[in-house]
Amino acid sequence: MKIKELRELSNDELLARRYELRKDAFNLRLQQQTGATEKPSVIRINRREVARIETILTERARKAGA
Questions:
Q1: Entry pTM
Q2: Rounded to an integer, what distance in angstroms lies between the CA atom of residue 37 and that of residue 13?
Q3: Domain spans of the chain?
């Protein structure tokens, strides 16, 4: 997802998306260890999307605290 699309989601939706991505990341790491990963680049894309979500959640938390 693009950052613009992520910003339109609510906090609960972002948290749910982050949970799904982290679960997928775990499964991808297991596949990578066994050599069954078809697209290793998916791991990087997944990790970057989690970072984008974390950034948005942190920005919102700081804005709410200020």
A1: 0.88
A2: 28
A3: 3-65
**H, E, C per residue of 32-57:** HHHCCCCCCHHHHHHHHHHHHHHHHH
3-65 CATH pick, 1.20.1530.20, 3.40.50.300, 1.10.287.310, 1.20.1270.50: 1.10.287.310
Length of the chain, in residues = 66
Task: Tell me the per-residue pLDDT of 31-45, one tens digit each, with 9 for 90 and over.
Answer: 999 988 888 899 999
**Cα 62 to the chain's mean position, in Å?**
20
Q: Are 18 and 51 in contact (CB under 8 A)?
A: no
Instruction: State residue 15's pLDDT score.
Output: 97
